[in-house]
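Pentatricopeptide repeat-containing protein: structure tokens wanted.
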Amino acid sequence: MGFSQKLQSFSILALILCNSRLFSRADSVVSQMIMMSSGGYSEILDSLIKSCKEFDFNNGNANSNNNDRRGAKRNGFVASLLCCNGLLSDLLKANKLELFWRFYNGMLEANVLHDVYTYTHLINAHFRVGNAKEGKRVLFEMEEKGCSPSLVTYNVVIGGLCRVGEVDEAFELKKLMDKKGFFSDVFTYSILIDGFGKQKRCVEAKLILEEMFSKGLKPDHVAYTALIDGFMRQGDSREAFRVKEEMLAHGVKLNLFHV
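Answer:
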């Protein structure tokens, strides 16, 4: 058996294990692939994509008819979709965007269905490079296709909008999210406080902090740090110090940033 055939056999084995929810064993197989490969992650990724196209996810075996994609469209595919989403997530965390898109395109060619996690990873990838237009397009697309965004999805979009300076649109999305029953969490508010603070709009950032209290949420050091940083950017060190004292009064500990 040649090396490429051996690598593909390992890829198929990893997919079978994932389809059976034996993720730790699948991880061990991928680790072996990494050890035996001289071409690095790119070679392994190509092998996984190729195997994904040739795999019958419904029955859990290699598919001799490559035109039959039924397995990717049935409930039996869920475990393998988890595997794909997990890899997309890992590639994002490692900031391997080129590999992310190569693997995602492989999923498209294999007719792999999308769920809320897939769409959220796509949105994250677009905003990661500052492409707010595409990030928002994917959000609208998932809703049109009947896939409801999660709180995490909305937080990714809100964070992405804040990073590109579109804080007003981010805040409007937060209000829309609340109306839909996705109640903002500490992370949502912290993102917005940071976004408004970096725009030197600290009055609004402070109002967002106060809204957190009114909703029964306790700001953490991230939210306070963002507000303190905002006042410092604005040149108001006195108010920054006052916010620091308020933070201490609420039992939030100092970190090195505040010392």
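The chain has a mean pLDDT of 81. The longest strand covers residues 55-56.

Cheers.
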